[in-house]
């Protein structure tokens, strides 16, 4: 086909080489566009991974806070239940008896 055009138009080879040179110059622009798109997609992926990690850490903290609140409520209920059963005087007697060497006992009134 090129041979036929070359026979009809003697300068057809120049047109072909000019088009080839124009495409050759545009190759750098297309590589730049492709690399820019890859860089943007990489940045979006890194941002998404970072955000997912932060969300996972945040949900772990929320779960830990909820568990701590439930344990504190359970401790309060257990302490009230234990002390309301008439065992409070027995605990005070153990604290003030002074049989154990406990640093906290020195702050209780009546214990030396």
Observed structural traits:
112 residues; 0% strand; mainly alpha; 2 helices; rod-shaped; single chain
Fold and architecture overview:
The chain has 112 residues and is mainly α. It has one domain. It is 83% helix and 0% strand. The protein has 2 helices and no strands. The longest helix is centred in the middle third of the chain and has 86 residues. It is rod-shaped. It starts with a helix and ends in a 15-residue tail after the last helix. The relative contact order is 0.04. The model has no long low-confidence stretch (mean pLDDT 80).
Listing every helix as H and every strand as E from the N terminus to the C terminus, the arrangement reads HH
The N- and C-terminal alpha carbons lie at a distance of 115 Å
Q: Give the helix tally.
A: 2
How many β-strand runs? 0
- From the alpha-carbon coordinates, what is the Rg to the nearest angstrom? 42 Å
Share of helical residues: over 70%
Give start-end ranges of low-pLDDT stretches.
none
Structural class computed from helices and strand pairing: mainly alpha
Strand content: under 5%
Could you describe the largest sheet, including whether it forms a barrel?
none
What's the rounded overall pLDDT mean? 80
Structural shape: rod-shaped
Number of domains: 1
